[in-house]
Amino acid sequence: MRQPTLADVAARAGVSAKTVSNVLLGRPNVSAATRERVRATVAEVGYVVNQAGRGLASGRTGRIAVVVPILFQPYFAEIAERLILALADRGLSTTLRIAHGRDAERDAALGVTTRDVDGVIICPHHFDGRMIEERAPRRPVVQLGGRPTPLLDCVVMGEREGFEAIVGHLLSSGRRRIALVMTEPAGDRYAGYVAALEQYGVPYDETLLAFGSDGDRRMSAYEAMVGLIRSGARFDAVACFNDATASGVLRALQRHGVRVPREVAVTGFDNTDEGEFTIPSLSSVSPEQEEMVTAAIRMLLERIEGYGGPGREVRTGARLVLRDSSR
């Protein structure tokens, strides 16, 4: 049986073959209605993009590298899946790379380990602009999350404002002894914690800080929380660096007979699916992942299509998602 062609899709959708190609390549110069009609027609006729032919004709592979530092942390697993599905909607395939450590992230951005793609979206742990100052990336790169990198297009989440808002929520509910569980007293989330305390006139207390060795592992947070409990410090709430940290904290509190939220409220950050299923369900901050993914893909495709301007920065919001752990 003959395989449907690009021309078949164009004829059925009532558009030109060029328009179909633009939709499949994710180019921005197509109306939303036309884009949806073309995608529906592609699915209806069963058209499959010939990636080899596309590469020969355009010099492109039709493939994007999605780079994350880890997958056992729910946030990175979820953001990778969002990127992969959103790119597929634009007719693009993906290569998933795990870049564990500074050198691996630098090599992914520079193209050392991502030679076979048209562009890179990197979700970093350690990456910053100083790591590529002396060598330009071989292909378009967009950074999603982390501190902004002036040399690249970046999508930056509202970490400080989000953390300030969630700690403010705890303080406005009458909590005054807010413990903090993270890896070190630094970064935008820590700054948000300090700013919220100042706004409510609550003294900063170093005895309420509990640092774990790894902000992405639940066991590290569990151990940090146990240490804080055994120290004898009084606290009526715990603000956690992320949802994975909060899961470890909830476990430690439960093991020590502390009732959440009656005695101690707990909050996370990232609003991962995990937070809906902890006991109790977890209050968190949504960095608007869908908005982040949309912005990152848009800027990457514009670079692939030839945009050569300076690095751009898109800053997304931070929305409180309040659940049982802090009510």
Summary, kept brief:
With 327 residues, the protein is α/β, with parallel strands linked by helices. The chain has 11 helices and 12 strands.
Mean pLDDT: 91
The span between the termini is: 61 Å
Largest β sheet strand count, sense and barrel closure: 6 strands, parallel
Helix content: 40-55%
| Count of distinct strands | 12
Cα Rg? 23 Å
| Strand/helix succession | HHHHEHEHEEEHEHEHEHEEHEE
Name the overall outline. elongated
Proportion of residues in extended strands: 5-15%
**Which CATH class of the largest domain?**
Alpha Beta
Low-confidence stretches: none
CATH architectural category of the largest domain: 3-Layer(aba) Sandwich
Q: Can you identify the CATH superfamily of the largest domain? A: Response regulator
Can you tell me about this structure?
By secondary structure, this protein is of the alpha/beta class. The chain folds into three domains: 6-48, 434 Repressor (Amino-terminal Domain) (Orthogonal Bundle), CATH 1.10.260.40; 61-158 and 288-319, Response regulator (Rossmann fold, 3-Layer(aba) Sandwich), CATH 3.40.50; 159-286, 3-Layer(aba) Sandwich (Rossmann fold). It contains eleven helices and twelve strands. The strands form three sheets. The protein has a six-stranded parallel sheet with strand order 2-1-3-4-5-11, sandwiched between helices. Strands 7-6-8-9 form a four-stranded parallel sheet, with helices on both faces. The radius of gyration is 23 Å and the shape is elongated. The N and C termini lie far apart (61 Å). The model has no long low-confidence stretch (mean pLDDT 91).
